[in-house]
Amino acid sequence: MSRRAARERRLMLACLDADTLGGVQRVTHTVAQGLAERGYEVHVVGLHRSTHPFRYVERPAYRRHVIHRVPVRTLSRLARGRADRRLAALLTRIDPGRVIMTSPSVVSRLLPLLPADASAIGHYHGSFEHARDTWHLASIRRHWARLTQAVFLSSGDADRFAEHALLPNTWSIPNPLSGWPAERSDLTARRVLGVGRLEGVKRFDRLITAFAAACRMTREPWELHLIGDGAELSRLRAHAHAEGVADRVVFRGQVPAAAMGAEYRDGSLIALTSEHEGFALVLAEAAAHGVPAVAFDVSGGVRSLVRHRHTGLLVPPGDVEAFAAALARLMNSPDERRLLGAAARAHAEGFRLERVLDAWESLFAHVDR
């Protein structure tokens, strides 16, 4: 292999923090491992150390680096200068042909340090709706047109960023499932699943309220299982009590990734009530197990996962009453659950890891042309 060809197969994936439990990190490690197993030399870089490191891959085939030994926070000018010198030295040592940067803050930090001949790829894990309501859109407008490629989670999001951020270089690649289950749910358990960190942005309070209302529309004794941990636990317990469903809302805590397949198989519905989501991987994971979704229509990524009345039901963002009605509809209809669940599993085939890795390699080939 020529030196140029070897360099083109040398990749760096950079995160603000690469090892915290979170969606960006999970996707980064999954893609890194998949590409490493396809023969790429892959380096995962965290600009900051994680306070509570989470191990995503037991036997990584890629290399890991941490630049600054403190958790994410604003650095002094002196500390920032030291960290940038370490970054520059690492880039010189690795000499990657492609650098994938997973957030606007990482792009603005690394772009001035990259070798001129490296392919600079931005990979935005949020939705256009979220970017529009934060500083992200301004940062993307300012920096991302200078990238070799700007990657978004759905074609709808890519189109909106191209239009509103004036980007000439958009591309879309969905996030991957880490595996494909051999078994699927039989959808007979009277159990709704809510999966994610117990934090304000996930709005599990809305889910509890909607679930309580849905329970009043069905005669069957359904339960809501919330899988995840976080600062909102005590408040959500009190909210379940206030809504009269404390005996039906089960707080499961954090479940190991290896055990999540059993959780999906024991569920009959997955519910998503977040304020915003880029690409809610839990919806894809549930769909792979044949579990249909009820979700707020908050982004192109969610719409790419949940096809309304085909693989699940979409509800206008924040409309808790409509969400309750959608939940009750499927709680009361095992036949519709089975129909939607079968379509959801077929649709989730498109998010299998091998297909997403193929999409990344297609992007690399496009960049090389």
TrEMBL record:
This is Glycosyltransferase involved in cell wall bisynthesis. Keywords: Glycosyltransferase, Transferase. GO terms for molecular function: glycosyltransferase activity. Residues 22-171 form the Glycosyltransferase subfamily 4-like N-terminal domain. Pfam families: Glyco_transf_4, Glycos_transf_1. The keyword Glycosyltransferase applies. Residues 186-346 form the Glycosyl transferase family domain. InterPro entries: Glyco_trans_1, Glyco_trans_4-like_N.
